[in-house]
Amino acid sequence: MSTATVSRAVTASAPGRLCLAGESLDWMTGGSSVVAAMPLRTRVTAWRAHGSTALTLTSGSPLFRTRLIPAALAANGCYAGDALDHMQAAARVALRQRDLIAGTVLTAASDLPAGAGLSSSAALTLAVVMALDGLNGFPLDLEAVCERARQAEAGELSSGAGWMDFLACAHGGVNRVNAGAVPSVERIAPTLGIPVVVIDTLQRRTTAAVLASKRERFQAQEPGMVVYSREAGALVDAITAVLSSQAVDHWEVGRLLNAGQELLRDKVRCSTDLIDTCVQRVLSAGALGAKLSGSGHGGCLFALVPDDALTAVLKSVANLPVHALALPASEPHGLLSTLPLPRSRTTPA
Questions:
Q1: Cα-based angle 346, 348, 349 (whole degrees, multiple of 5)
Q2: Is the backbone of residue 292 left (phi > 0), alpha (psi -120 to 50) or beta?
Q3: SS3 for the chain, per residue?
Q4: Residue 342: half-sphere exposure toward Cβ, Cα within 13 Å
Q5: Which residues is 335 bridged to in the sheet?
Q6: Mean pLDDT over residues 230-235, rounded?
Q7: Would you list the domain boundaries of the chain?
Q8: CATH 3.30.230.10, domain 9-190, yes or no
């Protein structure tokens, strides 16, 4: 008769994020952005299968995939080139040693659509690193988790990701993220204080390819990209000031969101016809402001919507090939773990 061994398990979760202003400024100029976490989370549970010699990756929604990687291959950074690479890269960065990788099991599930501009990959890598740190008894340090999660994407997978996504998801709430030589987070408010409608256009793009194209255009000093880098910085300052006021003027926030969308559409040229149609319809239906989130060329947009306009806004896009989701507010909490996590405001480069 066999004896079952009950393994310790640690679960960590991270929210997705919306970018109100300053997309790409983190890697363009080392500039700032204003971000809000959203109450859609990615959860990762880490445990050990005693006697296993592989790294086991299992994913529920939205990927529904499984991968078994011999520990030696995982330790050497051999990737398959699919959506589970982010889990594997985060595990390699967090564990490094073959004997720690062998027998590790990671189970993930997410409320976030993948590749839609809501930082689903940052939320995943953060949750993987945090869960593995807890499982292996490593010190739980938010700054170190952010640094290694970014290393998994930007280093292991060469995605071109900057600091914004990782700091936004890790800290939660509404923040100004300053990329700079020493990246930092300035808390503005726990939430936006107004309902948000997120609209997924169901159009997908490869984030790494989009970022590579933007980098080439910016490095070539394409006029539109230069204008964007300058004017987006001014929008970041303006939105920070409005959201920091004691009585937030959400109409003004909406106006600034619309200005940001116009910059992204006309100067960066990363909007799409479907995104533009959605923006026009929700604004006509009573939304205060709307813009795409993330790298654009598909993915999601979001709108700030007062309670009395919520039904009209949802109806305005009901006959389009999109999925609209109404959220009561943004998310005040960032990275969470079944183990206590010390909090801090600054992440070293």
A1: 135
A2: beta
A3: CCCCCCCCEEEEEEEEEEEEECCCHHHHCCCEEEEEEEEEEEEEEEEECCCCCEEEEEECCCCCEEEEEEHHHHHCCCCCCCCCHHHHHHHHHHHCCHHHHCCEEEEEEECCCCCCCCCHHHHHHHHHHHHHHHHCCCCCCHHHHHHHHHHHHHHHCCCCCCCHHHHHHHHCCEEEEECCCCCEEEEEECCCCCCEEEEECCCCCCHHHHHHHHHHHHHCCCHHHHHHHHHHHHHHHHHHHHHHCCCCCHHHHHHHHHHHHHHHHHHHCCCCHHHHHHHHHHHHCCCCEEEECCCCCCCEEEEECCHHHHHHHHHHCCCCCCEEEEECCCCCCCCEECCCCCCCCECCC
A4: 9
A5: none
A6: 92
A7: 9-190, 196-327
A8: yes
- In this predicted structure, the answer to whether residue 66 has a pLDDT above a threshold of 90 is yes
How long, in residues, is the chain? 349
Tokens (6 digits) for 224: 């539109």
Task: Name the pLDDT band for 38 (thresholds 50, 70, 90).
Answer: very high
- The CA distances from residue 83 to 120, 185, 231, in Å, are 11, 29, 34
Q: How many CB atoms lie within 10 A of CB 165?
A: 31
| Token output for 230 | 């300058």
pLDDT of 258-271, one tens digit each?
999 999 999 989 89
Residue among 118, 124, 180 nearest 150 (CA)? 124
Residue 132 backbone zone (phi > 0: left; psi -120 to 50: alpha; other: beta): alpha
Q: Which superfamily, per CATH, for 196-327?
A: GHMP kinase, C-terminal domain (3.30.70.890)
What residues contact residue 30 under an 8 Å CB cut-off, 6+ apart? 179, 180, 181
Structure-block tokens of residue 48: 């050990």
Query: What's residue 48's pLDDT?
Result: 93
